[in-house]
Design brief:
Length: about 270
């Protein structure tokens, strides 16, 4: 940051159905590209966003967080930004923060949900773009039992697309499935909630891919644990479709700890 710029936190929600993911790609429609286009126009100079988690193509967000540095404070209001954005993106809040805040490296944890419709009638047509439809009723208790060994700090190489020089060690803080029934339609769904300090590429969809077959009784309860212990993509875990996946929330420590959290996260990534 320069002395003339101010750092802003943006809380963002979007329907990822028509996007090629968050990150800017040449000749592709992306969430970052759309927001940066609007912010650059309003601020009168180039704006670059840093987000808490780069969602893949088709993945949605209810609680994405990003930051940017801008010179023109008064132009970056929620109302002006949303009027210029397409309908499938909305900014929920714009907050002035200090330079210690980093949307990616200051985060304590991220929480995702993954929704599966296992009702024999199929998904509600109004929700079909955000749910995976499976043919068999799933055993939630078996899935939660199978999820227990995955909680904690592990090498999740069996559940990630490995990047060169990247780490696949992550700490899962919470992983559970809950049954939900729509009051209006009576259609049942199963929702996976997973919280971790960070996620590697395709990790959440792979966790779902290891646990859903257990719920359908196609795999034994110890299947996810066995895959974890292999520490390799050769474990054969299926990467499930993207459209039922939602980034629900990103949590940060108190402002006084932003810089410390950022330094710790950066040092861990550098060491890995």
């Amino acid at each position: 940051m320069s002395d003339s710029t101010t750092r802003f936190r943006l809380d963002i929600t979007y329907d990822g159905s028509e996007f090629s993911g968050w990150a800017i790609q040449r000749d592709q429609r992306t969430v970052q590209g759309e927001i940066q286009r609007v912010l650059t126009h309003l601020a009168g100079h180039d704006i670059e966003l840093t987000c808490a988690g780069r969602t893949d193509a088709g993945v949605h967000a209810r609680g994405q967080v990003a930051h940017c540095d801008a010179e023109a404070m008064g132009q970056l209001t929620v109302e002006r930004i949303n009027r210029a954005l397409p309908d499938d993106i909305r900014i929920r809040a714009v907050t002035e923060v200090t330079a210690d805040f980093d949307a990616r490296f200051s985060a304590s944890w991220r929480r995702y949900s993954y929704t599966v419709c296992d009702d024999p009638r199929g998904p509600d047509p109004l929700h079909r773009r955000h749910q995976l439809s499976v043919g068999n009723h799933m055993d939630i208790d078996a899935m939660n039992q199978a999820a227990q060994p995955l909680i904690g700090e592990h090498d999740f190489a069996s559940f990630c697309k490995i990047k060169q020089h990247g780490t696949t060690v992550r700490e899962i803080l919470d992983l559970r499935w809950e049954r939900d029934v729509d009051r209006a339609t009576g259609i049942a769904t199963a929702v996976m909630h997973v919280t971790a300090d960070a996620f590697c590429h395709s990790m959440v969809r792979s966790l779902a891919g290891a646990l859903i077959p257990v719920g359908e009784r196609r795999k034994p309860i110890d299947y996810p644990k066995g895959a974890l212990e292999l520490k390799a993509r050769a474990a054969g875990v299926t990467v499930m479709p993207a459209h039922p996946l939602v980034l629900e929330e990103v949590r940060y420590p108190p402002e006084s700890q932003w810089a410390l959290r950022q330094r710790r996260t950066r040092s861990v990534r550098a060491a890995d």
